[in-house]
Amino acid sequence: MKYSIDKQEKYTLLQLNETKLDATVSPQLKSEFVTLNAEGNKNIIADLSQVKYIDSSGLSAILIANRLCQDANGSFILAGVTDHVMKLIKISQLDTVLELVPTVEEAVDAVFMNEIEGDLSKGDLEG
After folding, report:
1. Which CATH number applies to 3-126?
2. Spatial separation of the C-alpha atoms in residues 80 and 75, rounded to whole Å
3. Angle between helices 26-38 and 56-71 (to 10 degrees)
4. Is the pLDDT of residue 125 over 70?
5. pLDDT tens string 84-116
């Protein structure tokens, strides 16, 4: 699997450099998400701008990452989803579950907004 990881203070960006997210790539992607989560990365942005095809195993890897981030009170955001991949996400009705944004920049903004909202709601609970 070809990918790059950029770890920042508030988030980790995983850029998938594959055109297909299928059964040949998904197991490795799943284990990468699990490893990132175990290292304490609760906010993960997955840049799928190069992915032209996804199957059920690819969607499964994405859902696992989403659950791991939610369980850690973080955010999992998909950026740059191509038209074909977006169609499959919508057919699977995962567009209601996943956070989808057009660009990595917007995903970074979303992470910071989610962090601020999380801090504010913690304040409400304490106050």
Report:
1. 3.30.750.24
2. 16
3. 10
4. no
5. 999 999 999 999 999 999 999 999 999 999 999
Contact 47, 80 (CB under 8 A): yes
Which amino acid would we find at residue 45? I
DSSP 46: E
pLDDT in tens, 33-85: 999 999 999 999 999 999 999 999 999 999 999 999 999 999 999 999 999 99
| Closest by CA position to 46, among listed 28, 64, 65 | 65
Residues 6+ apart with CB under 8 A from 76: 43, 44, 46, 62, 65, 66, 68, 69, 70, 98, 99
Residues 106 and 78: beta-carbon distance below 8 Å: no
Whether residue 54 contacts residue 23, with contact meaning beta carbons closer than 8 Å, is answered with no
**Distance separating alpha carbons of residues 99 and 18, to the nearest angstrom:** 21
Domain parsing of the chain, residue ranges: 3-126
Q: Is the dihedral of CA 13, 17, 48, 65 positive or negative?
A: negative
